[in-house]
Write a structure and sequence with these properties.
By secondary structure, this protein is α+β, with helices and mostly antiparallel strands. The chain has a single domain, classed as Roll (Nuclear Transport Factor 2, Chain: A), CATH 3.10.450.50. 27% of the residues lie in helices and 50% in strands. It is built from three helices and six strands. It is globular and about 45 Å long.
Length: 131
């Protein structure tokens, strides 16, 4: 189980690093083909919509992303795992506009497929934070 937990923590670290650098292909490689994202105030997002939105935000004049995840709990049950974390995301628009910060909790379900942990479901409850 310890190796599984370390692999899941590495997945989160890789996700944040790839998101910061605009490496959409790496981020997408960390999800199942049937991934579902639940975000407050938005319709359900599946992999195709997530990929399109991510690619649109990875252009040269796109906003810069920064983030930090503080994992609070990971539970592993066979080839399934769930975790909840405290997540902070800062988006800095191009041209010197004021950064937008959102923070809150996430609940994530992961599945081990072909020996690799992948994000299968994610619900985030991030809310704007005054800066």
């Amino acid at each position: 189980m310890q190796n599984d937990e370390q692999e899941i923590r590495q997945l989160v670290s890789t996700w944040i690093s790839a998101s910061k650098s605009g490496d959409v292909d790496t981020v997408l490689s960390l999800t199942t083909d049937d991934v579902v994202f639940l975000v407050t105030g938005h319709p359900v997002m599946r992999k195709a919509e997530f990929a399109a939105a991510s690619r649109a935000q990875a252009t040269a004049d796109a906003p810069q992303f920064d983030g930090a995840s503080n994992i609070q709990e990971i539970k592993i049950v066979g080839d399934w795992a769930f975790m909840w974390s405290e997540l902070t995301v800062v988006v800095t628009p191009p041209g010197g506009a004021k950064p937008m910060k959102r923070a809150g909790h996430t609940l994530t379900i992961l599945q081990k497929r072909n020996g690799k942990w992948l994000l299968a479901r994610d619900a985030n409850m991030l809310a704007p934070v005054e800066q």
